[in-house]
Design brief:
- The complex is a heterodimer of chains A (113) and B (115).
- Chain A has 113 residues and is mainly beta.
- In chain A, strands 2, 4, 5, 9, 10 and 11 form a 6-stranded mixed beta sheet that branches.
- Chain B has no helices and 11 strands.
- Chain B starts with a strand and ends with a strand.
- Helix content of chain B is 0%, strand content 49%.
- By secondary structure, chain B is mainly beta.
- In chain B, strands 2, 4, 5, 6, 9, 10 and 11 form a 7-stranded mixed beta sheet that branches.
- Classes of the chains: A mainly beta (113), B mainly beta (115).
- Chains A and B meet through strand 4, strand 5 and strand 10 of A and strand 5 and strand 9 of B.
Amino acid sequence: GENVEQHPSTLSVQEGDSAVIKCTYSDSASNYFPWYKQELGKGPQLIIDIRSNVGEKKDQRIAVTLNKTAKHFSLHITETQPEDSAVYFCAAPEAGGSYIPTFGRGTSLIVHP
Amino acid sequence: NAGVTQTPKFRILKIGQSMTLQCAQDMNHNYMYWYRQDPGMGLKLIYYSVGAGITDKGEVPNGYNVSRSTTEDFPLRLELAAPSQTSVYFCASSYGGGRGSETQYFGPGTRLLVL
């Protein structure tokens, strides 16, 4: 099955700094890469995703970049705010017709005011 | 739309007891999933379903069973609960497996403690 590694497991930044979380995947045929945010006591929620035919996608303060050659994709959060504090998960699907993703272990982001 | 709903929110079980975790979605999604989340371990897939009447095992299916008699409902059954099943369980759904329909919508979770 797909192997997804996510780093770092914990990331502590000051408000206003940038944060970067990276995931690597093993299946070169994977074509869809989402990032989910999980706030305390809640289920994960999609915040941004990228397909394999583009290298970068932005949505206000968050962006995702994809390097297909190196098989990794990263979440970038600029001008971090305390409300960005949460656990972030990446996911990558196994190749094939059914979308059954494998999730990374998660990154706990702490933004200090 | 209520999205994905899960009941109960929290449950304490004794070793050997059984229970069913309920999951329902009102988005007419074809795909439904059950995950467990242990601290620092991310989300592990237990079972999934690509449509009514079709279920398949995920990464950690032992000790669990599922059924999918309708599009809306996807209950997870625990037989003979063990302490190793102490976890937070999330149900999720997505429209399908094709391009543009991969986004998963998660329920609020069920916290289970087995003593």
